[in-house]
Amino acid sequence: MRTFDFAPLHRATVGFDQIADLMDRVLSNDAGQSSYPPYNIEKTGEDGYRISVAVAGFADDELSVEVKENALHVSARKADETDAKTYLHRGIATRAFDRRFHLADHVRVTNASHQNGMLHIDLVREVPEALKPRRIEIQSQKAIDAEVVEA
Hints:
Elements: H1 7-12, H2 17-29, E1 39-43, E2 48-54, E3 63-68, E4 71-76, E5 97-102, E6 107-115, E7 118-125, H3 141-150
Antiparallel strand pairs: 1-2, 2-7, 3-4, 4-5, 6-7
């Protein structure tokens, strides 16, 4: 496995330490991260996203979706089954899981729905007006001279 040294990034930039920390976290978590449950991340619009998690076998009250400190936590715990069943083949995994997704700044969860064994979580990126690009009108020298004369 490759290792990356982010020290030059810290020396040459200011304010980008979150990116280096994110890269460090992603590279260190890849080896131990489970692929269960399977999920999709899709772009639904210019600023819209949807995370779909396959949660077959789980009821609504056994699922939990929580946002905390720019992280989305999706977890499930199967309720204890009181009736003992004998399975000849058990291919539907209903084991407990805790999946975390790191959210970028200004990304907000708008909706979560559970249907047909899929948990859909809708997200939207809402950039504040102060951070959006704005066009600055360029005044001609004549307009500036006219304002000075009027004053």
